[in-house]
Amino acid sequence: MPIQELVEYFNDRLEREHQSRFRPFILKEGKAIGLFGPIRIESIFSPLRLTLKPEVIVGHTAHISVSPNKISPLYTNEIETLLADNSGPAGDFDSIINFDRLSRTLHMLNYLVLAHLQGVLFLEVDPRHILGIKLDHGAYFEDVIRQCGLETKNVAIVLAVNSQYAPYHKELINGLSNYKHRGYQIALKLDYLSQKTEASDLIRKVSPNYVSLSAQNMEDQDHDHNLLTRLTQFTALVELSGGQSILHQINDKKSDSLARNTHFNVVEGDYYKTIPLDYFSHSPLDQYGLEVSYL
Question: What is the mean pLDDT of residues 224-228?
Fold first, then answer.
């Protein structure tokens, strides 16, 4: 189905679901854009690369870019109602679920528009979305994927893991199991390398396809002389659970060296945009923090 027809299809669908003039998607200069009252939402894709062969792209993470809506203030009332901070928790969940679905539909439309993209598309799902849906997680978005001519195996559902939702791990695990049953890949996104066992237990119970950490959060642990050992143990645990490890936000040679030395499978970051990828050799690197030559 042509992209313009898909945009109109999803606008028609949302208009029926919300029984309003809610038609948030437009196609502009070859890209799908979401107009939500006073804000404009666009998709940003960041490539995921093999650590030892960064010229090989294995997928993309999708993020939203938010800016003022200078095109038109249409549907302001409808959007404010949709995203209203209602007094009851069910209303809060409904708002999160709706916004989550809208954002992911936008990313899927742009994934199709930007035909050069390849590999798995990583889409983050708000934990409140998973907690707010009691049954059939992924069913709604599965239909979106099929309308776009793709399969659920092309999509990785990303769940950010933090201590705030520790009391709800059982419910989150059940939700992720539903996604997995429908063929989605599963990715866990950890804020930092915790000394505690909760994250390790979650990895063992979920057996995700991917588990990620941020290189930026490692900067606060430079004084940790056991960091290399702990990261190596982390990547080994992920591999033992049947998954692949990802190090995000790599912005310099030091972080790239860290990823290689501790056996991360996949890397992501601006560092790989700054130098020719054929500059890399694949020989073993020196220890983290030392100058490394890639020649």
Answer: 80
